[in-house]
Amino acid sequence: MNDMTIPNPIEAARVAPPAPLGMLAELTHRCPLSCPYCSNPVELDKRSGELDTETWKRVFSEAAAMGVLHLHLSGGEPTARKDIVELTAHAVQVGLYTNLITSGIGVAREKLEELANAGLDHVQLSIQDAEAENADKIAGLKGAHSRKRIFAGWVLELGLPLTINAVIHRGNVENIEALVNMALEFGARRVEIAHSQYYGWALENRRQLMPTRDQVMRAAATVERLRDELKGKLVIDAVVPDYYAKRPKPCVGGWGRQSLNVTPQGKVLPCHAAETIKHLEFDYVTDRSLPDIWANSSSFEAYRGTSWMKEPCTSCPRKEIDFGGCRCQALAIAGDPAQADPACSLSPFHAKITALAIKDAVADAPDYIYRRFGATSGNARVQITRNGAPAE
Amino acid sequence: MTDIEVLSAAVPKLPRGVRLRRDEVRDQWLLLAPERVLHPDPVAVAVLERCDGVRTVDAIVDDLATAYAAPRETIEADVKKMLADLQAKRVLDLD
C-alpha cells in the first residue's frame, strides 16, 4: 500500500488483536453429499470462482507466520480439489497442524496415502448415523455409509489419527451410543457428538432437525456416561444444542478472537454464518493480506471485544467468558446482531427461541431440504421421504 | 472411572497427530492435538521431549532425577501422573 495519509490517532492507538489459533479453509463447496445441516452458506460458491493453488498456498504461509496453529482443510469435500495434496504439503511445510475434514466419499486410497506422505496430521470423518439406511438418507447419497467404513479402514492402515464427527439431530439423536460404538469400531481416538447448530442449511431445515428437550437431556446423559466408561480409549467432545440452553456458547471463542474462515472464493469470515449479517463488508485474500484482514477488516472489528455490546451483556460478569454468544443467532432470532444471543436466559428473546425449538421439535417432519447448488428458498425440495416419525 | 496405571516399563510416545512445538509468535511451547492446544510448563516439556518411543518411563525418570537433581520418588510420581493424564486425553501412547 502506498497510502501516505496521516494515521488516524484512534486507529493508531488501537491494540492489535492477538493472533488467531485456528483457520478453517473451505477449499471448495463441491461435495458428493447433501446433508441438510451443512454449515456452508445457503448460497454456495461455484467452482469457477474458487481460489487457485498459489493463492491458497500464500494464504497458508501468511496464516502460519501470523500464529495460526491448526489449519482445517474443509469444504464441501476438500479432496474434490485436484491440488489437495500440494496444498496439504505446503501447509505442513510452513508448520501448520493439518486437519482434513472429509466425507470420505470420492477419495481414492492412493490419494489418502499421498496426503499421509505429505505429512497430514489428522483426519476427521463425518458419519451421518449408525444405521446405514438412515445415514444414506441424511447424506442424500445411497451407499455413502458403507464407503465411509472402508475409508476409515484406510485411515487406520496408513497410521493416521481419526476423529469421527457426528452431527446430531432428531433423525439420529436416539442412536448416540451406537454412533460412539461405531467410532470405537472404526478405530477413532476421538468422536465429536455435535448437535446441529441452526444456521445456514440447518436453519432451513430446523423443523426437520430439531430434537425435543427430553431427547437432548437424554443425549447429554448418554454422553456423560460413555465419556466415563471410555476414558483413555476414546475422547468424546460434545457440542450442545443451544436452543434449550440457559447460557450461550462463546461462539467461535469470541468474534475475531481465536479463529477465522476463508471461503472457496477467498472471502475471510469471522465464522461460518457471518455472511447472514448483511451490513457487514467482508474482505478477500485476493485484495488484502490475511494479517491485514484479521487486524483491520471492518467485519472483524464489528463485534470484536465487548464495546459493541448492549444490555444485558454490557453489565454481565460473563461478557468476557461467552462474548454475548453468537451474533448470527442474535440476528436470526432477535433481528439484531448486537443483541445478546437469545440462547442466553437473560435475553428478552429467550422465551422466543425456546418456544421455536419446542414447536419445531413436535412439528410433522417435512422432507429435508438438501444442501445443493441453487436449492434455496425451498424451491427445490428433493422428494425423498424420511423413514418414520421422530422417536418421542 | 477407570484410572490409568502407568507402568515403569512402559514406553511413552506422542502418536501421529500430536506434536510438541515451539510457538515463536507467542514465545511458548505447545502440544498440538486434534482440535486442542495444550500448554505444557517447562517440566512437562522436559518430560515430553523424552517421550520418544524408545525410552521407558523408568529411564525418563532416572534422566530427569539427574538433570533436575531432585528426589527420584517425587519425579516418578509426577511423571506417572502427567503421563496418565495425557493418555486419558488420548494425546499419548503407552506401549
Can you tell me about this structure?
The complex is a heterodimer of chains A (392) and B (95). In chain A, strands 7-6-5-4-3-2-1-8-9-10 form a 10-stranded mixed sheet, with helices on one face. Chain A is built from 15 helices and 10 strands. The N and C termini of chain A lie far apart (60 Å). Chain A has a domain at 22-251: TIM Barrel, CATH 3.20.20. In chain A, helix 2 packs parallel to helix 3 (84-93) and helix 3 (84-93) packs parallel to helix 4 (109-118). Chain A is globular. With 392 residues, chain A is of the alpha/beta class. By secondary structure, chain B is an alpha+beta fold. Chain B has one domain (12-89): Arc Repressor Mutant, subunit A (Orthogonal Bundle), CATH 1.10.10.1150. Chain B is 40% helix and 19% strand. Chain B is built from 3 helices and 5 strands, in the order ββββαααβ. Chain B has helices at residues 42-50, 57-68, 72-88; strands at 12-13, 19-23, 28-33, 36-38, 93-94. In chain B, the strands form 2 sheets. Chain B has a 3-stranded antiparallel sheet with strand order 2-3-4, with helices on one face. Chain B has a two-stranded antiparallel sheet with strand order 1-5. In chain B, a hairpin with a 4-residue loop joins strand 2 (19-23) and strand 3 (28-33). In chain B, helix 2 packs across helix 3. Chain B starts with 11 loop residues before the first strand and ends with a strand. The A-B interface holds A 19, 21, 65-67, 69-70, 95, 97, 99, 121-122, 124, 159-161, 163, 189-190, 192, 228-229, 231-235, 237 and B 1-2, 4, 15-19, 21, 23, 25-26, 30, 32, 34-35, 37, 87-90. Chain A: GO terms for molecular function: 4 iron, 4 sulfur cluster binding; cyclase activity; iron ion binding; oxidoreductase activity; S-adenosyl-L-methionine binding. Chain A: Its cofactor is [4Fe-4S] cluster. Chain A: It is an enzyme of class 1 (oxidoreductase). Chain A: Belongs to the radical SAM superfamily. PqqE family. Chain A: It holds the Pfam family SPASM. Chain B: Monomer. Interacts with PqqE.
